[in-house]
C-alpha cells in the first residue's frame, strides 16, 4: 500500500510518501518514495522558541508548496491511505495539517482512506529506519526524547508497550532549548549545546565542575529537568565569567546521566534484548554513544529521521493499518502513547 503522510504538529512541515508491504505476522518491508520538509526554524529563531499562531500560518503556506513540489516531481500520487498527525502537538498546527489533509483527500484522493496518526508512535517506529533494523529484538527498552516528551518505554512487541516513566516537568529537549537561551545560543538549542560541549578547551580541565544529575537515584523511571535548568541559571549568575563550553558540557552530562542510568536499569529489570532511541534529542551523538556502549543491540534512525518529519508518520500509519488501530480525525494536543 502507498501512504501519503502529513506532519505539522510543531514547527516542521512534512509530507512523505511511503510504500509499505506485508503484515505483522509474516513481516513487512517498505521504501521511502518521497520525503519533503519545510523547516520553520528561521521564522521562530528571533523569538527563541515556537510561536503557535505563527507556526500554523507557516504550515498553511508550506503545505500547498510542498504538495505542488510533489506533483511537479511527478511522484506517483495514488495513495491508498492519506495519514495526518492528530496529536500530540500544538492545537492550531495540528488543525492546519488536518484541514489540509481533508482538502487534498476530497479534491484528489477521495478513494483513499483518510486516517489520523500519533506523533509519538512516529518517533517510536523511527527505529525501523535504522540501518540494522530488526523486529526480533523484543522486549526492548525504548527511550523517546524530544522537545515535548521524555519517556522510558518497555516495548514487548511492535504493537504492545508500557510507559515505565516520564518527565514530571520539562522534557529533556526543552531543557536543552532553555539552557541554550541562557548561554545566548540560537534556537533550537540541542544541536548548539552539543557542538559547544564538544569544543576542546586548552588550559581548562575537562571536568572543571558538575551539575547534580536530576532524579538519578529516585528509584523509579521518571525524570525531571526544570531544576537542572534553574541550576544552570544560578551558576551563570554567580559565575559571569564561566566558560560556556564547560557549562554546556556539564549540563549535557547531568541531563544524560539519569537517562542512561534508567535505560540500563530497565534493561536489566525487564531482560530487554535491545535498546532503542528516538525523538529530536536522539540526534545527539554523545547520548547515542552512551547508550551504544551499554552492550545491547542498539537502534536509532539516521539523523534526519530523529527530528520531526512525515516519513515516521507514514510508518506509524502503516503499522496501525496492519494492526487495525485507528485515531479520530481531530486535533488531540495531549495524545499520549
Ligand atoms: O522530535 P522533535 O523534532 O520535536 C518534538 O517532537 O518535540 O525534537 C526537537 C527537540 C528540540 O528540543 C531540540 O533542541 C532537540 O530535539 N534536539 C537536540 C539535538 N537535536 C535536536 N537535543 C540535543 N542534542 C541534539 N543534537
Ligand atoms: Zn517530535
Automatic annotation (TrEMBL):
Positions that bind Fe cation: 119, 123, 308
UniProt keyword list: Acyltransferase, Cytoplasm, Iron, Metal-binding, Transferase, tRNA processing
Pfam families xrefs: TsaD
Cofactor names: Fe(2+)
EC number: 2.3.1.234
Keyword Iron in annotation: yes
Domain Gcp-like intervals: 32-314
Record has Iron as a keyword: yes
Cofactor annotation comment: Binds 1 Fe(2+) ion per subunit.
One term of GO molecular function: tRNA N(6)-L-threonylcarbamoyladenine synthase activity
First-level EC class: transferase
Binding site for substrate: 144-148, 177, 190, 194, 284
GO biological process: tRNA threonylcarbamoyladenosine modification
Annotated catalysed reactions: L-threonylcarbamoyladenylate + adenosine(37) in tRNA = N(6)-L-threonylcarbamoyladenosine(37) in tRNA + AMP + H(+)
UniProt cross-references to Gene3D superfamilies, sorted A to Z: 3.30.420.40
Main localization of the protein described in the UniProt heading: cytoplasm
Any one cellular-component term (Gene Ontology): cytoplasm
Localization in the cell: Cytoplasm
HAMAP family, alphabetized: TsaD (MF_01445)
Record's function text: Required for the formation of a threonylcarbamoyl group on adenosine at position 37 (t(6)A37) in tRNAs that read codons beginning with adenine. Is involved in the transfer of the threonylcarbamoyl moiety of threonylcarbamoyl-AMP (TC-AMP) to the N6 group of A37, together with TsaE and TsaB. TsaD likely plays a direct catalytic role in this reaction.
Family per similarity comment: Belongs to the KAE1 / TsaD family.
Record protein name field: tRNA N6-adenosine threonylcarbamoyltransferase
Lineage: Bacteria, Candidatus Joergenseniibacteriota
Gene that this polypeptide is encoded by: tsaD
Amino acid at each position: 500500500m502507498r501512504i501519503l503522510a502529513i506532519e505539522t504538529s510543531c514547527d516542521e512541515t512534512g509530507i512523505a510518501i511511503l510504500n509499505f508491504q506485508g503484515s505483522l505476522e509474516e513481516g513487512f518491508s517498505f521504501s521511502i518514495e518521497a520525503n519533503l520538509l519545510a523547516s520553520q526554524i528561521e521564522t521562530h529563531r528571533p523569538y527563541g522558541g515556537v510561536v503557535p499562531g505563527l507556526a500554523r500560518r507557516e504550515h498553511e503556506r508550506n503545505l500547498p508548496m510542498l504538495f505542488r513540489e510533489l506533483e511537479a516531481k511527478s511522484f506517483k500520487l495514488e495513495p491508498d491511505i492519506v495519514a495526518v498527525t492528530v496529536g500530540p502537538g500544538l492545537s492550531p498546527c495540528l488543525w492546519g495539517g488536518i484541514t489540509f489533509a481533508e482538502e487534498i483527500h476530497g479534491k484528489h484522493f477521495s478513494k483513499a482512506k483518510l486516517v489520523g496518526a500519533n506523533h509519538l508512535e512516529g518517533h517510536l517506529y523511527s527505529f525501523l529506519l535504522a540501518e540494522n533494523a530488526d523486529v526480533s529484538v523484543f522486549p526492548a527498552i525504548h527511550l523517546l526524547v524530544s522537545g515535548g516528551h521524555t519517556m522510558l518505554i518497555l516495548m514487548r512487541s511492535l504493537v504492545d508497550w508500557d510507559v515505565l516513566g516520564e518527565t514530571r516537568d520539562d522534557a529533556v529537549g526543552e531543557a536543552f532549548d532553555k539552557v541554550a537561551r541562557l548561554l545566548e545560543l540560537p534556537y533550537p538549542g540541542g544541536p548548539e549545546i552539543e557542538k559547544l560541549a564538544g569544543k576542546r578547551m586548552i588550559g581548562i580541565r575537562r571536568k572543571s565542575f558538575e551539575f547534580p544529575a536530576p532524579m538519578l537515584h529516585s528509584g523509579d523511571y521518571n525524570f525531571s529537568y526544570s531544576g537542572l535548568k534553574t541550576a544552570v541559571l544560578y551558576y551563570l549568575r554567580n559565575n559571569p565569567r564561566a566558560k560556556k563550553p564547560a557549562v554546556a558540557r556539564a549540563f549535557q552530562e547531568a541531563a544524560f546521566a539519569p537517562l542512561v542510568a534508567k535505560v540500563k536499569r530497565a534493561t536489566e529489570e525487564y531482560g530487554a534484548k535491545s535498546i532503542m532511541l528516538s525523538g529530536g534529542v536522539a540526534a545527539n551523538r554523545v547520548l547515542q554513544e552512551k547508550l551504544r556502549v551499554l552492550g545491547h543491540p542498539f537502534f536509532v534512525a539516521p539523523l534526519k529521521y530523529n527530528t520531526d518529519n512525515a516519513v515516521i508518520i507514514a510508518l506509524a500509519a502503516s503499522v496501525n493499518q496492519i494492526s487495525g488501530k485507528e485515531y479520530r480525525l481531530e486535533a488531540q494536543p495531549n495524545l499520549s502513547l
